[in-house]
Amino acid sequence: MSGALEAGLWGLIGASALVLGGLLAFTVHIPTRVRGLIQGFGAGILFGAVAYELVEEAVDAHAGGFAVGIGFGLGAVVFYLGSVLIDSIPAKGGEPDPDGGAGAPATGDRRAAGLAVLLGTVLDGIPESVVLGLTFVPGAGVAAPILLAIFISNVPEAVSASEDLADSGFSRRRIMRIWIGVTLTSAVAAAIGFAMLDVVGPRLIVATQAFAAGALLAMLAETMIPEGYQNGGRPVGLATALGFALAASLSLGT
């Protein structure tokens, strides 16, 4: 098996958690409060991925802080612009969405939140899969902490986005097609990452890692953390800290 193909398979494994998260959202009834705790735990893991697998790895590459800063800022800006574009897209029929009931978020809010998480997943997942491919060593596999962080964090991301999109009118079949498409694209990205290993310079690799981190942090601040707290209340802070602790232990334990 060629190195690029094997790296792509590892990328497929990591991103397949998106499909798993979508299936869980549609087959298991998750109470609102539990869903908030899952979102908080997932956000903590993603914070850990930003801190230990993306930014730290970029800094350790000794390619200069400028590349890290530019990549990080660009990732955040691209997510922000995409989020603004999502908000500007009218709901079905071009009319404002009705409220989902007293105390419930409007359908349009759920749709925007779901699309924002999907955008963050793509802007984070594709570069992250490239990074995963860059860590692949034929015969030895990929960096286990990065693979585990990608897999574990993808589940709550997909659960959150799937439920929001389904509640706003997206069909389950359409949502699953989206996750399958992102998963396959991530596999290709991992193969490309391995192929890039001997071609691109360290600055581009660093910028790619930092771009994923910037997009991810912007998504967490805008969507997953606020929605997690709204759904789960005060315990979400503890769940987030525990998720971060798990991500740190996975990274620092190797």
Short précis:
With 254 residues, the chain is mostly helical. 80% of the residues lie in helices and 0% in strands. It is globular.
What does this structure look like?
With 254 residues, this protein is mainly alpha-helical. The chain has one domain. Helix content is 80%, strand content 0%. It contains eight helices and no strands. Helix 1 runs antiparallel to helix 4 and helix 4 packs antiparallel against helix 7. The longest helix has 31 residues. About 5% of the residues have low confidence.
Tally of strands: 0
SSE string, helices as H and strands as E: HHHHHHHH
The average pLDDT is: 76
Count of structural domains: 1
Distance between the termini: 27 Å
Show unreliable segments. 93-105
User: What fraction of the residues are assigned to beta strands by DSSP?
Assistant: under 5%
Task: Give me some keywords for this one.
254 residues, 8 helices, single chain, mainly alpha
Topology at a glance:
Elements: H1 3-27, H2 32-60, H3 65-88, H4 107-134, H5 144-167, H6 172-196, H7 202-232, H8 235-252
Helix pairs in contact: 1-4, 1-5, 1-6, 2-5, 2-7, 2-8, 3-4, 3-7, 4-5, 4-6, 4-7, 5-6
